[in-house]
Fold ARRD1 protein.
Amino acid sequence: MGKVQLFEIRLGDSRVVYSPGEPLAGTVTVRLSGSLQYRAIKVSCIGSCGVSNKINDTAWTVEEQYFNSTLSLADKGVLTAGEHNFPFQFLLPASAPTSFEGPFGKVLHQVKAVIDTPRFSKDYKCNKIFYVLCPLNLNDIPDIEQPNTMSITKKFNYKLVKSGNIILTATSDLKGYIVGQAIQLRTDIENKSGRDTGAVVASLLQKVAYKSKRWIYDLRTIAEVEGSGVKAWKHAEWKEQILVPALPQSILQGCSLIHIDYYIQVSLKSPEVSVTLPIYIGNIAVNRVPLSPSRSIQHIPSVVVPSAPPEEEEAASGYHPMDNISIPTKSHSQQQPFSYAPGLSFQEIRADSEQTGSPNHPTLCLSTGATVPYYAEGNVVPVPTASSLILPPEYSTWGYPYEAPPSYEQSCSSANSSISNGN
């Protein structure tokens, strides 16, 4: 850098995570081996979002800016040899969205500094990225503490002339979770046929929608657990849990270009049938209220009223009583949830403004990546899956004609009609 030996931005108390509405203070440090003439020394605080049509491309096709403030630290003059420190302070707007970084776009907050030198001389620039987290309090979402249930009935044919029904019902204990929390999942499968089913698979899915010239959907499996199939004429119950790994929160409040949704998908491989439960991932855990026996997840009745075995089967084999059995789990496929931030503990975050902005609470650093936080260490990759709904890791076929799962509101509004139609 010639005369400039050091030109950097240091944030107060070495902080990197801030809350909307907080002051951001720091120092611009310049160390020179000789005198340097300058026209101005300025520092800017910028928050913006950019989206691209190509993966990992920073040539944004669509952008939006949230704030851009500039301070003049020194006017025209000469800096002598040695070290010079210029303090600054900005007030982050209350509307600043949470930081996010994904393959097709990012919400980026940074401080930039520049030494503007006379004509024909080289300007000097540096920048410092910081992260904003607007915690999502799950308790602000209506009915978040209620169990989440979806059921579907599918009629299928086998052995050319025979037919049967599968009733698949999935229930989660809540509609929202935080990182490190276990999703308690119960699945009921009524196999009203003379054919064994394939394996049952429960997956935690992440859908990130990027608004470019058209919507780009990045859909991937975060965690997956597989259970055994169900024998003919059996009513099986499968209880499992999925531990929520490090994930960005569901809602980027204030950002109109990137939308994040999560789903629990339970599916049978044969016959092909699945149900999808929309859920939220937040930062402040649900305040659990003890459920009465009538509301307990163990006593939730099936949404679909069971029907008698198909007439074809009844005529051929007579009536078949439905035996109740439990499904064993075959395999788990999940990221190491505690490998991304050494020493991080998953204590519940209190809705305390002082704690929210404190650097001593690293739990607030969990929303800075597409599937893992910015602070991830090692090779943490999405769990591979054979499901046709999940795009491959290279994203070579992203976007149209693939369709992402519906939004939370769409799922809730269409649930009753789907169940009543038996599809």
